[in-house]
Amino acid sequence: MQYALLIYGPEPAEDAPDDLMAAEFQAYAEFTNHLVGRGAMKGGEALQPTASATTVQVRDGRTITTDGPFAETKETLGGFYLVEAADLDEAIAYAAMIPGAKLGSIEVRPVLELPAEYAAATAGAAGN
Amino acid sequence: MAGSAAAHEVVDRLFREEQGRAVATLIRVTGDFDLAEEAVQDAFISALETWPVRGVPDNPGAWITTTARNRAIDRLRRRKRLLQKTETLAQEAAIESELEAIEPGPSEDAMHIADDRLRLIFTCCHPALAMDARVALTLRTLGGLTTPEIARAFLVPEPTLAQRLVRAKRKIRDAGIPYRVPPAELLPERLDGVLRVLYLVFNEGYAASSGDSLIRRELCAEAIRLARVVVSLLPDEPEARCLLALMLLHDARRDARVGPAGELILLDDQDRSLWDTERIAEGRALVEGALGERRPGPYRLQAAIAALHDEAATPAQTDWAQIVTLYIALQRMTPSSVVGLNLAAAVAMADGPAVGLAMMDGIVASGELDAYPYLHSARADLLRRLGRWSEAAVAYRRALELTTNAPERTFLEGRLREVDGRRRVID
What we know:
The complex is a heterodimer. Chain A is α+β, with helices and mostly antiparallel strands. Chain A has one domain (about 1-50, about 75-125): Alpha-Beta Plaits. In chain A, about 30% of the residues lie in helices and about 10% in strands. Chain A has three helices and three strands, in the order H-E-E-H-E-H. In chain A, a hairpin with a 2-residue loop joins strand 1 and strand 2 (about 60-65). Chain B has helices spanning about 1-30, 35-55, 60-85, 90-100, 110-125, 130-140, 145-155, 160-175, 185-205, 215-235, 240-250, 275-290, 300-310, 320-335, 335-350, 355-365, 375-385, 390-400, 405-425. Chain B is mainly alpha-helical. The chains are: A alpha+beta, B mainly alpha. Chains A and B meet through strand 2 and helix 2 of A and helix 8 of B.
């Protein structure tokens, strides 16, 4: 079996102190290394805060792009794609092609680029 | 002394006209909104210092852009020196590549620079930004408006507006909003978004208000100026031309719609000799230029309606039948209760107040515009014209509950006194 582990939590403070951020990155790097060591790591990324989010819907064949994260509580997370795109417009174009965009909503959230020293662990996992 | 005053005047005028152009170019070469704004500001300060002494250069706009570019280089070098003391090689390399990008290349020609502003308009009006952020960002980066000016125009506290700008710039960077004119398949949708921002800026400036009338005038001028930029760079887009026409045709009546005490004067009561005939002629020419288009858009219809008002030498000469036809077309194209209300008001003029009132009663019954003051004031006006004084008074009171704008309140209070007086005579 494979499982997706989805991380929910309070929105991080806009200017969190560096040492707090470092401790957080360190803790995640340790967990990632644990998964990599056991051969359990299939992928995963940190995401930018919800302020960077864009929501995409397709209605009557038209793409509707709105500012902000997906906020409807009645609809639930059904899956996700991780895509490489040149910019937000390309990501929106892919989002609009997802069948679920016709009935539901696709939240487009950029991946957070980790500082080099923490990114190394995940890069190792990708080649695994 | 005279030379110094003249130089200041040139800088002031240039600031409105050129700052958006310079910021747009600097954003292209640096990819950094804040650096671009700071560098352009530096360049204008430098102009204020040197021009009164050495005279205004032959091409002041180019001087500003070149100076801003040099200031951006200085700022990046300073950042690099600081980093050498404290920080990592990777960041230093990033600044080095930024510095390389910023040096003038062979591709620097006038067309490129014109494109910069168009690119920036599309970035600032990207649908992934909230509408209020798009408006603020467009006025700040492309218009010559300062943060306090925009805050005053939209009646929000200055820190709120500053925060809105910071967040919008961060989102552009973090979410990867592109800096470019959208490709053909996205252009209609995105251009529509740009035009909506410009129209919103114009309407905000055009709404009569107790607020700062100078700033409001500036908003209208800015919307018109930016619409001209879009039209000159995308000449084949009829809706852009028609939005420009629509704004000119409304702006032409600006001086006639407010009285000496700041009171609101309705279209019927305006001194039409105060209308700006040059603007009307320009607006009409733009609308007529778009007449050949097979499928008229909503701005074309609205501009045609505004032109019909402007063409009438007296209120009685207004072609209301034609206006009704245009509103019916607009209602079909962009159905909304607000368009329905305008249609009802036009029908009242063409076919009598009773017919218009029946349509407005339908809108009231739907409950959709209950919080919209103009529904109640327009309905009150028809009731007044039909001599139904008591009902008119109720409707004026409801409109007053919903109106905060001082000149509009004064107007409504006057009408309410009038119908209350008539009511008492009859009772």
